[in-house]
Amino acid sequence: MVIISWQSGINSIHPGPTVDYQPLPMSQELFLNRQQNLINAMLGADDIEFRIIYFHKLQELMRRVP
To answer: Tens of pLDDT along 1-34?
Structure first.
């Protein structure tokens, strides 16, 4: 379910349309595939900045272990 809202507060730094969503449930197989893809991308990246990005994405994924 996608809920589209409009940010219009005086204290809002970025006024404009925003999308708030709830991720779909993840199967065990999908989780393991995503985990392995992020590990492979992290280890295979030539640039250290990409390794850090993939590491943080992996950390975020691990918070949602099915």
So the answer is: 444 444 444 455 555 566 666 667 888 898 999 9
Q: Give the bridge partners for 31, in sequence order.
A: none
Q: How many helices (H) and strands (E) does the chain have?
A: 2, 2
Which of 43, 25, 11 has its CA nearest to residue 58?
43
Task: Provide the token pair at 59.
Answer: 């950390």
Residue 19 within any structural domain of the chain: no
Task: Tell me if residue 6 falls in helix, strand or coil.
Answer: strand
Contact present, 54 and 42 (Cβ < 8 Å): yes
Number of domains the chain is built from: 1
